[in-house]
């Protein structure tokens, strides 16, 4: 029984052998050595037993699995929006793999609970760093972008959580979690994977695992039509029974439409390479030479903050570029912006574009894969320029700075575009998916 405390599930398992270890823990155990081939057969056998007693599909209980619910980012905002909408008529819980900040950065929607599998707040650093490789994750592929966040500890807690589920809906939100759920979720659970990053952005080993495992899921939801087509082509007959696009909903922001009377360009996001703020700063050097009264404000925090600050200083832009850090009230930031800039190298969707449109702020964006081109209508509510082309970005920003009438016309169109992403409309599409899955799900687990 001592082993079950650390390796077991939330609930009593239905096999004699699980007194010592659950099938999920057995899978992890054999994955550490030369017996990896025994893990999946053990899970299949356990799933066949579970399927015989699984209750009919139920969609009233919804759990959404996130990496870190207390962080800042578009995926987290999108999950909070979805959870808040579904909480009106479902029991909704956000399950966070880790807790690294004491409190959530975003306001938790009414009626939504948050739980944490691995609470790291206040935990002392490892005493023997040289032994760290022994504690690396075995459940997550090393090519998972957040692999460094996962450990053997999170593997066991995640396996315990997944195998302990008894019915309901589980929505997962990144490739590593989608793959783990496809492998370990038992019969009786309706599984829905969300892809917040385009398929092409995943490394080849991740794409190989996606092709192998995603067909075991109940549904796969993409944010763009381009990504939906990519998954259809990649998965073929191995695709889940439900493969569809549901974009993210608008984040409710404070205030009304921006007055568009402040000489400022706003950018928002994590300060990481993928967001391309180094490119935006390079473009801004050209812009401010012709429009010295304007400022660029880059809101967010992340690993590249020091590097970006150094680039600003080196280019002599300290008086026109600001890095204020994290800000919870993005609505207030947009109130003091006349243009929104997106400089990402790739975007699964871009919540920030939709938020800018909802405040009537025209957008200038790189035409990166795939989100911006599906949200914006160039020349109507914003402008698209070739991905990575800083000269084109500078020219587009400068053009809107010079033409106030065009900015305001685009801002009016932006408000119309934003209505397509109204929370009630997006929520209705999720409810339809849950209803369909509740009627048609079969409990065949890993037998496929």
Description of the molecule:
With 448 residues, the chain is an alpha/beta fold. The protein folds into two domains: 51-249 and 428-447, Glycogen Phosphorylase B (Rossmann fold, 3-Layer(aba) Sandwich), CATH 3.40.50; 264-421, Glycogen Phosphorylase B (Rossmann fold, 3-Layer(aba) Sandwich), CATH 3.40.50. The chain has helices at 2-7, 23-31, 39-53, 74-86, 152-164, 175-184, 204-213, 225-235, 277-290, 305-314, 330-335, 351-358, 371-375, 390-402, 404-418, 423-440, and strands spanning 61-66, 91-99, 112-119, 169-172, 190-195, 219-222, 242-245, 264-268, 295-299, 321-325, 339-342, 363-366, 382-385. The strands form two sheets. The chain has a seven-stranded parallel β-sheet, sandwiched between helices. Strand 11, helix 12 and strand 12 (363-366) form a beta-alpha-beta unit. Helix 6 (175-184) runs parallel beside helix 7 and helix 9 (277-290) crosses helix 14. The model is unreliable at 1-21 (pLDDT under 50).
Alpha carbon gyration radius: 23 Å
Instruction: Report the end-to-end length measured between terminal Cα atoms.
Output: 32 Å
Can you tell me the CATH class of the largest domain?
Answer: Alpha Beta
Q: Name the shape in a single word.
A: globular
CATH superfamily of the largest domain: Glycogen Phosphorylase B
Order of helices and strands: HHHEHEEHEHEHEHEEHEHEHEHEHEHHH
Q: Could you say what the CATH topology of the largest domain is called?
A: Rossmann fold
Number of helices: 16
Spans of at least 5 consecutive residues with low confidence: 1-21
Strand content: 15-25%
Derived from helix and strand composition plus strand pairing, the structural class reads alpha/beta
* Biggest sheet record: 7 strands, parallel
Give the tally of β-strands.
Answer: 13
The strand line-up of the biggest sheet is 3-2-1-4-5-6-7
**What is the count of distinct domains?**
2
Helix content: 25-40%
Mean pLDDT across the residues is 89
Question: Which CATH architecture of the largest domain would you pick?
Answer: 3-Layer(aba) Sandwich
Domain Glycosyl transferase family: 259-414
Pfam families: Glycos_transf_1
InterPro entries: Glyco_trans_1
GO molecular function: transferase activity
């Amino acid at each position: 029984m001592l082993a079950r405390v650390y390796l077991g599930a939330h609930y009593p398992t239905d096999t004699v052998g699980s007194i010592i270890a659950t099938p999920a823990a057995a899978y992890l155990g054999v994955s550490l050595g030369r017996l990896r081939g025994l893990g999946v057969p053990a899970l299949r056998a356990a799933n066949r037993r579970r399927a015989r007693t699984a209750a009919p599909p139920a969609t009233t209980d919804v759990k959404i699995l996130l990496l870190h619910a207390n962080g800042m980012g578009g995926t987290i905002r999108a999950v909070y929006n979805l959870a808040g909408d579904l909480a009106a008529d479902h029991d909704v819980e956000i399950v966070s793999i880790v807790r690294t900040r004491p409190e959530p950065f975003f306001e938790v929607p009414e009626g939504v609970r948050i739980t944490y599998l691995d609470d790291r707040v206040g935990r002392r650093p490892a005493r023997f760093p040289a032994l760290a490789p022994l504690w690396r994750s075995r459940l997550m592929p090393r090519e998972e972008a957040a692999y460094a966040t996962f450990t053997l500890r999170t593997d066991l807690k995640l396996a315990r959580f997944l195998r302990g589920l008894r019915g309901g809906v589980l929505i997962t939100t990144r490739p590593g979690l989608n793959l783990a759920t496809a492998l370990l979720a038992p019969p009786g659970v309706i599984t829905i994977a969300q892809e917040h990053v385009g398929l092409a952005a995943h490394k080849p080993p991740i794409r190989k695992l996606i092709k192998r495992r995603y067909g075991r899921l109940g549904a796969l939801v993409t944010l763009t039509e381009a990504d939906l087509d990519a998954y259809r082509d990649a998965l073929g007959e191995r695709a889940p029974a439900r493969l569809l696009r549901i974009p993210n909903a608008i984040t409710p922001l404070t205030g009304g439409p921006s007055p568009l009377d402040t000489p400022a360009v706003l950018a928002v996001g994590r300060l990481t390479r993928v967001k391309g703020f180094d490119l935006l700063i390079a473009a801004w050097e050209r812009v401010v030479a012709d429009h010295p009264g304007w400022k660029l404000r880059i809101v967010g925090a992340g690993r590249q903050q020091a590097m970006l600050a150094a680039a600003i200083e080196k280019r002599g832009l300290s008086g026109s570029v600001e890095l204020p850090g994290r800000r919870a009230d993005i609505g207030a930031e947009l109130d003091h912006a006349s243009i929104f800039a997106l400089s990402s190298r790739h975007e699964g969707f871009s919540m920030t574009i939709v938020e800018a449109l909802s405040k009537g702020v025209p957008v200038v964006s790189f035409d990166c894969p795939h989100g911006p081109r599906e949200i914006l209508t160039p020349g109507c509510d914003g402008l698209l320029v070739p991905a990575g082309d800083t000269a084109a970005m500078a020219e587009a920003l400068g053009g809107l700075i010079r033409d106030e009438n065009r900015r305001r016309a685009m801002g009016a169109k932006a408000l119309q575009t934003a209505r397509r992403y109204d929370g009630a409309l997006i929520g209705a599409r999720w409810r339809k998916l849950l209803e369909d899955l509740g009627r048609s799900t079969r409990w065949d687990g890993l037998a496929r």
